[in-house]
Amino acid sequence: MDTDHTRSDPAEEAALDAYSRVVTTVAARVLPSVAALSVRTPRGAGAGSAITVGTDGLLLTSAHVVQGAAGGTAAFGDGTETPFQVVGADPLSDLAVLRVDETTVPPVELGDADGLRIGQLVVAVGNPMGLAGSVTAGVVSGLGRSLPARDGRVTRLIEDVIQTDAALNPGNSGGALADSTGRVIGVNTAVAGYGLGLAVPINGTTRQIIAELTDAGRVRRAWLGVAGVPVPLPPDVTARTGQRRGLRVVEVVPGSPAGVAGIYLGDIILSAGGRAVVDGQGLQRLMLGPAIGTRLPVTVLRKSAFVDVVAVPTELTR
Fold first, then answer.
1. Does the active-site annotation cover 180?
2. Which of 60, 200, 268, 305 is the most exposed place for a label (fewest CB within 10 A)?
3. Are 280 and 203 in contact, with CB atoms under 8 Å apart?
4. Annotation says 64 is catalytic
5. Whether pLDDT at 5 is above 60
6. What's the pLDDT tens digit per position in 53-105?
7. Which is the catalytic residue, given 173, 256, 271, 279?
8. Which helix (H) or strand (E) holds 241?
9. How far apart are CA 26 and CA 202, in angstroms?
10. Is 90 a catalytic residue?
11. Quick one: DSSP state of residue 65?
C-alpha cells in the first residue's frame, strides 16, 4: 500500500508551473520599463515608481508621487540613472507624465482595463528605492471602485478604479499593473489596506488624460453645474431604453450650463452625448476638455415624458 503522503499531484504541479510561467514572463517583459523615482520637493525627498510609455522618454506615474516637484531622478533596472522633468500632473485622476533626458528602455504596451473581469490574474510591478524589481501577483478582486481625489477646492471621484489583492509596497505607487499578456492595464496608486491595493485604470478616459498632460501639461475639464443620485427607472422606461437606472437631478447651479439648457430639479438624466447615464461617474466621464464649448445633447425623463435639451459645458475653474 502506498503510504507516501508527500507525493505531489501532477495536475497541481502543472497548474503552479503555468502560473509561475505567466508571472515570470510578465515580469521579464514589464520590469525593464519600470523606473525607480527619487523626487525632490520643498517638503523634502520622496520616492515612487514610473512606467516608460513612449520611445521619446515619456514616463507615466501617480500624481501624488511627484506632487510639488519639478523633477528628480529616474533609475532603471539596467543601472541607468537620468534626470526627469514633470511634464504635467493631474491630481484629480492621480496621473502624471514625466520626461527623461534620454533612455534606451523600451516602452510598455498599454492595454484596456475596460475588459477586465473579477478573478483575472494581474501582476503588480514596481521599482521602489531599496526594493528594486518588486513583483507581486494576485487577482482582480473588485472593479468599478471609486477613489476620492482633491485639487484645491475641487473634489472628484477617480472612477472605475481596479481593486486587487496583489501585495503593494508604498514605493510601488506609480508602478505598473499588468495583465497575463504583459499589457499594462493600470497604474498602482494606493495601498488601501492589508491585502488590498488600488490602481487607476488604463482605458479610453485615462488615455485622453495622458494625451492632454503630454500635449498641454494639464487637463482641462468641463462643467455642467448639476448634481444627481442614481435611481431605478420605471419598467416601461427600462423596456424602451434598455437601461435600469438613471441620474435624478438633486441640484442645478443657477446660471450654469445645465440651468441654461433647461434641466430642472427632479429630472432624471437618461443619456448625455448619446451615452447612457446611470450614475454620476457616467456623466463625469464626459466632462473632459473636448466637451468644453461643445453642444451636448441630454435626454431627461420629466413627469413620465422624454425631454431632449442641449447643454454647452463651460471650462471648470479651480
1. no
2. 305
3. no
4. yes
5. no
6. 988 899 999 999 998 888 899 998 888 899 999 999 998 889 999 999 877 88
7. 173
8. helix 235-241
9. 17
10. no
11. G
